[in-house]
Amino acid sequence: MKVSLFATCLIDLFETEAGKATVELLEKLGCEVEFPEKQVCCGQPAYNSGYVKEAKKAMKNMINAFESAEYVVSPSGSCTAMFKEYPNHFIGEGEWEVKSKALAYKTYELTDFIVNVLKVEDVGASFNGKVTYHTSCHMSRLLGVKDTSFRLLKHVKGLEFEPLPNAHDCCGFGGTFAVKMERISEQMVDEKIRHIEETGADYLIGADCGCLMNIGGRINRGGKPIKVLHIAEVLNHR
Fold first, then answer.
1. pLDDT for 181
2. Domains of the chain
3. In whole angstroms, what is the distance from residue 205 CA to residue 230 CA?
Protein backbone atom coordinates (compact mmCIF):
# COMPACT_ATOMS: atom_id res chain seq x y z
CA MET A 1 0.00 0.00 0.00
CA LYS A 2 1.38 3.39 -1.01
CA VAL A 3 1.03 6.22 1.49
CA SER A 4 1.85 9.87 0.96
CA LEU A 5 2.99 11.55 4.16
CA PHE A 6 1.48 14.92 4.98
CA ALA A 7 4.10 15.95 7.52
CA THR A 8 2.68 19.35 8.61
CA CYS A 9 4.63 22.53 9.40
CA LEU A 10 5.11 21.82 13.10
CA ILE A 11 6.64 18.41 12.50
CA ASP A 12 8.80 19.71 9.66
CA LEU A 13 10.12 22.60 11.75
CA PHE A 14 9.94 21.52 15.39
CA GLU A 15 8.98 17.86 15.92
CA THR A 16 11.11 16.01 13.39
CA GLU A 17 11.41 12.91 15.59
CA ALA A 18 7.64 12.44 15.41
CA GLY A 19 7.88 12.63 11.63
CA LYS A 20 10.66 10.05 11.49
CA ALA A 21 8.73 7.77 13.82
CA THR A 22 5.64 8.06 11.62
CA VAL A 23 7.54 6.99 8.52
CA GLU A 24 9.29 4.10 10.28
CA LEU A 25 6.04 2.91 11.85
CA LEU A 26 4.14 2.92 8.55
CA GLU A 27 7.00 1.07 6.84
CA LYS A 28 7.00 -1.57 9.59
CA LEU A 29 3.30 -2.03 8.91
CA GLY A 30 3.99 -2.74 5.25
CA CYS A 31 3.38 0.67 3.69
CA GLU A 32 5.49 2.29 1.00
CA VAL A 33 5.85 5.89 2.15
CA GLU A 34 6.49 8.85 -0.15
CA PHE A 35 6.92 12.51 0.65
CA PRO A 36 5.53 14.91 -1.98
CA GLU A 37 8.04 17.76 -1.99
CA LYS A 38 5.52 20.38 -3.14
CA GLN A 39 3.74 20.26 0.21
CA VAL A 40 3.96 23.31 2.44
CA CYS A 41 1.42 24.77 4.89
CA CYS A 42 -2.17 23.58 4.52
CA GLY A 43 -3.44 27.14 5.04
CA GLN A 44 -4.91 26.60 8.48
CA PRO A 45 -3.31 29.59 10.30
CA ALA A 46 -4.61 32.04 7.69
CA TYR A 47 -7.97 30.27 7.49
CA ASN A 48 -8.49 30.29 11.26
CA SER A 49 -7.70 34.01 11.28
CA GLY A 50 -10.41 34.72 8.73
CA TYR A 51 -8.21 35.06 5.65
CA VAL A 52 -10.05 32.47 3.57
CA LYS A 53 -9.15 33.97 0.19
CA GLU A 54 -5.45 33.89 1.05
CA ALA A 55 -5.73 30.40 2.55
CA LYS A 56 -7.19 29.04 -0.69
CA LYS A 57 -3.86 29.64 -2.43
CA ALA A 58 -2.24 27.23 0.01
CA MET A 59 -5.17 24.83 -0.35
CA LYS A 60 -4.74 24.66 -4.12
CA ASN A 61 -1.02 23.97 -3.74
CA MET A 62 -1.70 21.09 -1.36
CA ILE A 63 -4.45 19.67 -3.57
CA ASN A 64 -1.98 19.55 -6.45
CA ALA A 65 0.83 18.19 -4.26
CA PHE A 66 -1.22 15.16 -3.21
CA GLU A 67 -3.31 14.66 -6.35
CA SER A 68 -1.66 11.38 -7.32
CA ALA A 69 -1.59 9.91 -3.79
CA GLU A 70 -3.38 6.66 -3.05
CA TYR A 71 -3.72 7.51 0.65
CA VAL A 72 -2.65 10.64 2.50
CA VAL A 73 -1.68 10.10 6.13
CA SER A 74 -0.81 12.76 8.67
CA PRO A 75 0.37 12.53 12.30
CA SER A 76 -1.90 15.49 13.09
CA GLY A 77 -5.64 15.49 13.67
CA SER A 78 -5.74 19.26 13.29
CA CYS A 79 -4.11 19.41 9.86
CA THR A 80 -6.06 16.37 8.69
CA ALA A 81 -9.26 18.16 9.67
CA MET A 82 -8.14 21.10 7.53
CA PHE A 83 -7.92 18.86 4.46
CA LYS A 84 -11.44 17.64 5.26
CA GLU A 85 -12.55 21.29 5.29
CA TYR A 86 -11.25 22.04 1.78
CA PRO A 87 -14.37 20.95 -0.21
CA ASN A 88 -16.52 23.50 1.61
CA HIS A 89 -14.54 26.28 -0.05
CA PHE A 90 -14.52 25.06 -3.65
CA ILE A 91 -18.22 24.48 -4.19
CA GLY A 92 -19.10 25.30 -7.77
CA GLU A 93 -15.46 25.72 -8.80
CA GLY A 94 -15.29 22.89 -11.30
CA GLU A 95 -12.17 20.78 -11.09
CA TRP A 96 -11.17 22.31 -7.75
CA GLU A 97 -14.40 21.06 -6.22
CA VAL A 98 -13.74 17.56 -7.58
CA LYS A 99 -10.07 17.53 -6.56
CA SER A 100 -10.70 18.89 -3.06
CA LYS A 101 -13.33 16.22 -2.42
CA ALA A 102 -10.95 13.51 -3.63
CA LEU A 103 -8.21 14.74 -1.31
CA ALA A 104 -10.53 14.93 1.70
CA TYR A 105 -11.81 11.41 1.04
CA LYS A 106 -8.37 9.77 0.94
CA THR A 107 -6.82 11.67 3.87
CA TYR A 108 -6.48 10.04 7.31
CA GLU A 109 -5.01 10.90 10.67
CA LEU A 110 -2.27 8.39 11.55
CA THR A 111 -4.01 6.35 14.28
CA ASP A 112 -7.27 6.32 12.33
CA PHE A 113 -5.42 4.97 9.30
CA ILE A 114 -3.65 2.24 11.27
CA VAL A 115 -6.78 1.00 13.04
CA ASN A 116 -9.50 1.51 10.42
CA VAL A 117 -7.65 1.10 7.12
CA LEU A 118 -4.75 -1.22 7.93
CA LYS A 119 -6.94 -3.00 10.52
CA VAL A 120 -4.10 -3.20 13.04
CA GLU A 121 -4.32 -2.53 16.78
CA ASP A 122 -1.15 -4.22 18.02
CA VAL A 123 1.84 -2.69 16.22
CA GLY A 124 4.34 -4.70 18.27
CA ALA A 125 5.52 -1.75 20.33
CA SER A 126 6.96 -1.81 23.83
CA PHE A 127 7.40 1.18 26.12
CA ASN A 128 8.22 1.14 29.81
CA GLY A 129 6.65 4.03 31.65
CA LYS A 130 3.55 5.50 33.21
CA VAL A 131 1.71 7.60 30.63
CA THR A 132 -1.41 9.67 30.22
CA TYR A 133 -3.00 10.89 26.99
CA HIS A 134 -4.19 14.33 25.89
CA THR A 135 -7.20 14.24 23.56
CA SER A 136 -6.94 17.10 21.06
CA CYS A 137 -10.00 19.13 20.14
CA HIS A 138 -9.71 19.00 16.35
CA MET A 139 -9.05 15.28 16.26
CA SER A 140 -11.98 14.31 18.46
CA ARG A 141 -14.50 17.05 17.67
CA LEU A 142 -13.88 17.83 14.00
CA LEU A 143 -12.63 14.47 12.73
CA GLY A 144 -14.64 12.35 15.17
CA VAL A 145 -11.54 10.21 15.82
CA LYS A 146 -11.89 9.43 19.51
CA ASP A 147 -10.77 5.92 20.40
CA THR A 148 -8.07 4.79 17.97
CA SER A 149 -5.17 6.12 20.04
CA PHE A 150 -6.42 4.28 23.12
CA ARG A 151 -6.92 1.05 21.17
CA LEU A 152 -3.32 1.23 19.97
CA LEU A 153 -1.81 2.19 23.33
CA LYS A 154 -3.69 -0.68 24.98
CA HIS A 155 -1.43 -3.17 23.19
CA VAL A 156 1.91 -1.48 23.91
CA LYS A 157 3.88 -3.85 26.13
CA GLY A 158 5.16 -2.39 29.41
CA LEU A 159 3.07 0.76 29.14
CA GLU A 160 1.12 1.77 32.27
CA PHE A 161 -1.80 4.00 31.32
CA GLU A 162 -3.51 6.53 33.59
CA PRO A 163 -6.67 8.31 32.37
CA LEU A 164 -6.38 12.08 32.26
CA PRO A 165 -9.00 13.96 34.32
CA ASN A 166 -11.08 16.34 32.21
CA ALA A 167 -9.33 14.87 29.19
CA HIS A 168 -11.50 16.62 26.63
CA ASP A 169 -10.76 20.12 27.92
CA CYS A 170 -8.80 22.27 25.45
CA CYS A 171 -5.13 22.82 26.27
CA GLY A 172 -5.36 26.47 25.25
CA PHE A 173 -3.39 26.26 22.02
CA GLY A 174 -6.06 26.55 19.33
CA GLY A 175 -3.56 27.76 16.74
CA THR A 176 -3.70 31.55 16.65
CA PHE A 177 -5.89 31.58 19.78
CA ALA A 178 -2.78 31.10 21.93
CA VAL A 179 -1.31 34.25 20.39
CA LYS A 180 -4.43 36.42 20.34
CA MET A 181 -5.72 35.34 23.76
CA GLU A 182 -2.41 34.78 25.53
CA ARG A 183 -3.59 35.16 29.13
CA ILE A 184 -6.64 32.95 28.70
CA SER A 185 -4.54 30.35 26.89
CA GLU A 186 -2.01 30.42 29.71
CA GLN A 187 -4.66 29.66 32.31
CA MET A 188 -6.07 26.84 30.19
CA VAL A 189 -2.72 25.13 29.74
CA ASP A 190 -1.91 25.53 33.43
CA GLU A 191 -5.18 23.77 34.27
CA LYS A 192 -4.33 21.02 31.80
CA ILE A 193 -0.92 20.52 33.42
CA ARG A 194 -2.46 20.31 36.89
CA HIS A 195 -4.63 17.44 35.65
CA ILE A 196 -1.61 15.75 34.08
CA GLU A 197 0.24 15.96 37.38
CA GLU A 198 -2.75 14.39 39.15
CA THR A 199 -2.20 11.19 37.16
CA GLY A 200 1.37 10.80 38.39
CA ALA A 201 2.40 10.04 34.81
CA ASP A 202 6.01 10.31 33.67
CA TYR A 203 4.95 10.92 30.07
CA LEU A 204 2.23 12.90 28.32
CA ILE A 205 1.26 11.37 24.99
CA GLY A 206 -0.71 13.12 22.25
CA ALA A 207 -1.43 13.00 18.53
CA ASP A 208 -1.32 16.71 17.66
CA CYS A 209 2.00 18.55 17.72
CA GLY A 210 0.35 21.91 18.28
CA CYS A 211 -1.09 20.72 21.58
CA LEU A 212 2.13 18.98 22.53
CA MET A 213 4.21 22.07 21.75
CA ASN A 214 1.91 24.23 23.88
CA ILE A 215 1.74 21.85 26.84
CA GLY A 216 5.37 20.80 26.58
CA GLY A 217 6.58 24.38 26.44
CA ARG A 218 4.69 25.26 29.59
CA ILE A 219 5.92 22.11 31.34
CA ASN A 220 9.53 22.96 30.47
CA ARG A 221 9.22 26.55 31.61
CA GLY A 222 7.77 25.30 34.89
CA GLY A 223 10.71 22.94 35.38
CA LYS A 224 8.44 19.92 35.68
CA PRO A 225 9.86 16.41 35.06
CA ILE A 226 7.06 15.22 32.74
CA LYS A 227 8.21 14.24 29.24
CA VAL A 228 6.05 14.91 26.19
CA LEU A 229 5.92 12.50 23.22
CA HIS A 230 3.91 12.15 20.05
CA ILE A 231 2.02 8.84 19.92
CA ALA A 232 3.99 7.84 16.82
CA GLU A 233 7.17 7.84 18.92
CA VAL A 234 5.58 5.46 21.42
CA LEU A 235 4.09 3.15 18.78
CA ASN A 236 7.44 3.00 16.99
CA HIS A 237 9.35 2.19 20.17
CA ARG A 238 10.74 -1.32 20.54
1. 86
2. 2-115 (no CATH), 121-235 (3.40.50)
3. 6
